[in-house]
Amino acid sequence: MTRVRLIAAAALAAIVAQPARAQLGSYNPPPGPQKTFAIINARIVPVSGPEIAKGTVVISGGRIQAVGASVAVPTGAEVIDATGLHVYPGMMDAGTSIGLSEISQGANATVDISEVGSFNPNAMAYYGLNPHSAHIGVTRVVGITHVVTRPTGGILSGQAALVNLAGSTAPQMAINRNLALVIELPRSGFGGRGFGGFFAAQQGPANTQEVNRTRERQLDSLRTMLRDAEAYGKALDAYAKDKSLPRPRQDVVLASLVAAVRGQVPVLMVADRASDIKEAVGFAEENKLRPIIVGGRDAWQVASFLKDHDAPVLVTSVLDLPTREDDPYDVNYGAPAKLAQAGVRFAITSGDAGAEARNLPYIAGMAAAFGLSREDALKSVTLWPAQIFGVGDKLGTIEVGKVANLVVTTGDILEAKTDTKFLFIDGRLVPLESKHTDLNNKFKDRP
Description:
This protein has about 450 residues and is α/β, with parallel strands linked by helices. It has helices at about 5-25, 125-130, 135-140, 170-175, 195-240, 250-255, 260, 275-285, 305-310, 335-340, 360-370, 375-380, 385-390, 435-445, and strands at about 35-45, 50-60, 65-70, 80, 85-90, 90-95, 145-150, 155-165, 175-185, 265-270, 290-295, 315, 345-350, 405-410, 420-425, 430.
């Protein structure tokens, strides 16, 4: 077959396939255009200040232009009467890998959450993001408008990205492509009760020593790479100032570490045990990194240490079962309240790769039921994660000048019985259809 005929055949196949694509394509309908909207007669929860019992929010150009009890509606604005409804800032899940994994088991081609090898700092979640993931639609309709999605695996996992949950391409979704570096330090030996303690007892001290020697070699390799990145950055700066110097050879691995070793971006450090948390913070300070603890199951046990070192925590374990046999049933439910009482900066996250990220508001609601104030529970999924990542001036509250990521609901956004009536991401009205609504419409009348 000639090249012309091949092209013609491909074009014909594309035309024939269009109805099928329309039926089986993305579960995430694209948002509308940025227009001027006025949400009137709403109960407004700005998070940054007192609630407004009956007020107006004006959106234009993707930003919040006005908010208050006596705001005039601009001429030509599309008016949304929110009588009896509530307006919240969009929530932020800062501990997920949404868009990188579709089916976690049995279909490897749908998983792009990690790379082969232990040191992959140049692996960027941004380039693995699937804007058409079914997880995105069902997550945003509960009021989660933006997330931190991160790679996992190895020791240097790669670069996390901050993205809006609306858009047909990764560039349309991205807020910050290189938000943070992800590091997971190797754990020391085995120990404790349960399987780890049993395994250690069976293997004996010789095996534990070998594990620890391997761990020290990995840590030395990590330190060496960080020092090399610092030197590489200095060489690039020197060459930029004096072109007569030898040009440094291009190294994408070291280049991806420069911002982190200079403290320009934070480092997500995965740790759950109290000892691992302290070691992660110590390692970060030793290497002049800005740590953010991800996991933090036992963070409440070292709360004073975290407070003293100003190390924030992304808590992923609120709904987890207790890990020790003598822990109370609510040890994880009540952990955020203990961190708040100690003055530790933290955010509540789903900690899920994607499918269960939609449970974020109910996870925060559970923390509120076990000692965390309602106001702090809301801040832990809106303002506080934005502040931890340095975007609190753009996201997390309803204030003039901030990005118009807003949710209009029938009630308390942290309650499971609450429905979303309108959703705005980047000032665009987002359709509320998703895979769940699609399946419901298909099968609700099935006999």
